[in-house]
What does this fold into?
Amino acid sequence: MLVDAIVEAIRLAVTRIPDDVVLALKEAYAGEEGEVARFNLENILKAVEIGRDGSIPVCQDTGTLTFFVRAGVESPYLRGLEGAIFEATRRATEEIPLRPNAVDVMTGKNSGDNTGRFVPVVHWELAEGSEIEIAVLPKGGGSENCSALAMLTPSEGWEGVRRFVLERVRKCGGKPCPPVVLGIGVGGGADQALLLAKKALLRKGEERHPDERIAEIEKEILEEVNALGIGPMGMGGRTTALDVKIEVAHRHPASFPVGLVVQCWASRRAFVEIKPDGRVEVWQ
Ligand code: SF4
It folds into this structure.
């Protein structure tokens, strides 16, 4: 039953773009005047519709399946959960189907079922209580190639964050299949900054950071990225990014780490909740 629920969440994630992302894509379409930008957004919205109506993946690159598990330590379903995630990944690859994307780093041989050493990627967080929440994030490779880390000096600070993000997005141009969603992690160490950046992609469109100062920076970076004019699929236009999400952690006094994770227009996600009595709920 647990494996079934995770397969269902993977299916939902890869076939149905969340409503808030669709809304942002429609708003982007309405805000574009250029013929090419509108044409590209029209095609993206068509792909979204075909995926939803036909229950087929919205993009051929079904990505690397990444799971964020928030596990209540008293849940009776904790044992064997990682095995269930791997099994669900194998089944989803065959049943949906998903493109197999896990290859050996030495030989390049594809495992054929999206599993391998440390793949799918599973991030664990222990919590009080007996509920388990699993977030599924299928992460496209083209956009992941534009993700990056900068170890800034504290004196570069938030101005440095802006410069780094804008420079990276400018350099990547159309490669990450814009309009993108940018996850930015600031603080912690190198590892935590990137993890926070990826986790930020799970936040819904309308959810701004609860700290108003950070929420303001999210809006400012979004505006500056869109002023670059890269546009949908890199062919020019007003919409280079649909959104910017920042997460922060305390940092070492000598470091100012910034992780940037770039997500493409196919900003996919789904969630599974396992209740203490074994009932499961899948949603987006
Ligand atoms: S970057 Fe995203 S939209 Fe582009 S091919 Fe990969 S998954 Fe598909």
User: Anything to note?
Assistant: Residues 100 and 112 are 5 Å apart (CA to CA). The helical segments are 2-15, 19-31, 35-54, 81-95, 141-144, 157-172, 190-200, 212-226. The first strand starts at residue 64 and ends at 72. Residues 59, 61, 63, 140-143, 176-177, 264-266 surround iron/sulfur cluster (CB under 6 Å).
